[in-house]
């Protein structure tokens, strides 16, 4: 970049203004955005699988309709985010290939199985709740298309989180078996939900630079703490126990103290050794293969229309 372009970029970031696709930007800024937006998009698409697993087994038409709407929303979130990534000069084909080959990641949380119907509620309450904490600040991220995609995504995440909480609250008013099912689900998903925010700040190679560029507005640990502070009162209202004996109100800090996630487990899952990593990618690969005829037909139609046009 020229000195003028460099200065313009730095001044735009310093003013908390937006960098737009046609603006000059450092290669490393572009690559960091492609990495993060691609991971975010991949997470939305892979995230359809855990809950999609329960669509045919939802206990009522109402619950099935809600779950269908949520899973469909996640597909839309993935498409908004892939579109935002494409403004940085990377193709949809390349992004899909990077996901399927493991060259790019998706959120660790989606490598855990959904073993009971209560998981549908827990994912809405905890996973989408964590996503809200992580995504609301991204509405103010320095890259225009990414921040604008977040506006609608965050509005839909609120519905996702509320429907999950309402599902669990209904089960907690049910039988002992239903209450036990909710507690067992929360026990399985609590720590992986805290891991969604990434490694501790001291072990995060990207946070400092992403904060300097205004891509991230808060650190991993700040957002994790915000999520715990938001969620503990909700757990009390639900009547569930969060599986962390270190959880305690710290009056001095006006925030909760809480235990450390198992970072060895986190890195193992990130590196591909989680309970469902292979299954999730195999399912995505199968969906891609099954859709080949649609892509070929659409291209043939576009070429024919172009010839006749
Ligand atoms: N899962 C998988 N990989 C993770 C991870 C996680 N939970 N947290 C961190 N990592 C990876 C990073 O990608 C990075 O690896 P890389 O260099 O190979 O890309 C490495 O661990 C170091 O982590 P950093 O904290 O330094 O990396 P980042 O600065 O990128 O921060 C992040 C990680 C907080 C997840 C950030 O990328 C982010 O905010 N991403 C966008 C939001 C997002 O992806 N949210 C979660 C999924 S979306 C969702 O939940 C959908 C909802 O509808 C349910």
From TrEMBL:
Q: Which Gene3D superfamilies does the entry link to?
A: 1.20.1260.10
Q: Which residues cross the membrane?
A: none
Name any one Pfam family assigned in the record.
PaaA_PaaC
Could you tell me what this protein is called? Answer: 1,2-phenylacetyl-CoA epoxidase subunit PaaA
């Amino acid at each position: 970049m020229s000195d003028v372009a460099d200065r313009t970029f730095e001044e735009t970031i310093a003013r908390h203004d937006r960098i737009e696709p046609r603006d000059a930007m450092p290669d490393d800024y572009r690559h960091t955005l492609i990495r993060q937006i691609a991971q975010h998009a991949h997470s939305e698409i892979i995230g359809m699988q855990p809950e999609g697993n329960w669509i045919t087994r939802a206990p009522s038409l109402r619950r099935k309709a809600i779950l269908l709407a949520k899973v469909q929303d996640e597909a839309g979130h993935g498409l908004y985010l892939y579109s935002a990534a494409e403004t940085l000069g990377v193709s949809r084909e390349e992004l899909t290939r990077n996901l399927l080959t493991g060259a790019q990641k998706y959120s660790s949380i989606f490598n855990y199985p959904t073993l009971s119907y209560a998981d549908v509620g827990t994912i809405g309450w905890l996973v989408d709740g964590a996503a809200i904490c992580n995504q609301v600040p991204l509405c103010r991220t320095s890259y225009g298309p990414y921040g604008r995609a977040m506006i609608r995504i965050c509005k839909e995440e609120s519905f996702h989180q509320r429907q999950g909480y309402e599902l669990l609250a209904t089960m907690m008013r049910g039988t002992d078996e239903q209450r036990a099912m909710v507690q067992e689900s929360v026990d399985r998903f609590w720590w992986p939900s805290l891991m969604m925010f990434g490694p501790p700040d001291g072990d995060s190679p990207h946070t400092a630079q992403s904060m300097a560029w205004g891509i991230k507005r808060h650190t991993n640990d700040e957002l994790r703490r915000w999520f715990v502070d938001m969620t503990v009162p909700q757990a009390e209202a639900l009547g569930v126990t969060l599986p962390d004996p270190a959880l305690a109100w710290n009056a001095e800090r006006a925030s909760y103290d809480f235990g450390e996630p198992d970072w060895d487990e986190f890195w193992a899952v990130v590196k591909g050794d989680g309970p469902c990593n292979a299954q999730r990618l195999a399912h995505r690969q199968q969906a891609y293969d099954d859709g080949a005829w649609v892509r070929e037909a659409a291209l043939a139609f576009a070429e024919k229309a172009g010839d006749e046009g």
